[in-house]
Amino acid sequence: MTTITKLDQFTSTLEDNRKMLAAFLRTRRESLDPQRLGLPRSGRRRTPGLRREEVALLADVGVTWYTWLEQGRDVNPSVSVMTAIANALQCSPVETRHLFILAGLSPAEIPASALCENLSPASRRLLDALMPNPACMQKPNFDILGYNHNFCLLMGVDLDAVPVDERNCIYQYLTDENWSRRLGDRELILPLFVGYFRAGMTEHRGDPRWEALLESFFSVSGEFKALWQQRYEVRGIENHLKQFTHPQIGTIQMQQTNWFSTPRDGARLLVYLPVDEEGERQLEQLSQFA
């Protein structure tokens, strides 16, 4: 009777992963429309999607090497190369993580830029349709995926001019005076942010974006770092009344309402609604500060 050793099992797993990686790459490549990616027409295509040569060009890797990868050969791609291939194939964060695992790389090595999610056209239309009510979409780590014009007016920050990696509600609160002044009492607000982020961090320890955000919060705010190290409080996201201080309009009381796209790890839609006629009047005034 043949004895299967741990080495045999390990080798078999590696081979299976290479085969699954090859199959995924081919399927993903064939699903892409070359014209939508801005690639020129170059003769009649025998198969749908991109050619291997085009993926290699987009990822800046050798055609032969990429072909070996699609054939399931043992080529041991690096983090930078696998990231480039994921970008060339327009992979989502979930697909990028899948690629890294199949390639024998740690998901913790995925650059934060490769994990950025884009706002869908439908979500963009939803945010615009909610005008004049300020609204935004956030990830569980408080990264801002999208927003409408009145959300920027409410917070006093033109998010279009903010680098994508810095479009995070906590980071903006810690680094932008306009943003922090709009939210009022720092002794009340800052512990809330610490509690919110700690609650989420428990489930996402080791996630590169969460870890990078925590380090950035520490680097820009000694207060945040001190609260994180000295107090162990956790907070859950909930609907509540929220006050904003606008330099021209004064104090605006709004009802913050949250909707989640999925029960776990989904984007959160935040909408701020006036609670009375005075609030509606103030919202009309806000819209005039274009």
From TrEMBL:
Q: Where are the transmembrane segments?
A: none
Keyword vocabulary terms for this entry: DNA-binding
Residue runs in coiled coils: none
- Give the HTH cro/C1-type domain ranges: 24-96
SUPFAM superfamilies, alphabetically? lambda repressor-like DNA-binding domains
UniProt-recorded Gene Ontology molecular function terms: DNA binding
Q: Which Gene3D superfamilies match?
A: 3.30.450.180, lambda repressor-like DNA-binding domains
Record's SMART domains? HTH_XRE
CDD domains tied to this protein: HTH_XRE
- Protein name, as recorded: Putative DNA-binding protein
Organism taxonomic ancestry: Bacteria, Pseudomonadati, Pseudomonadota, Gammaproteobacteria, Enterobacterales
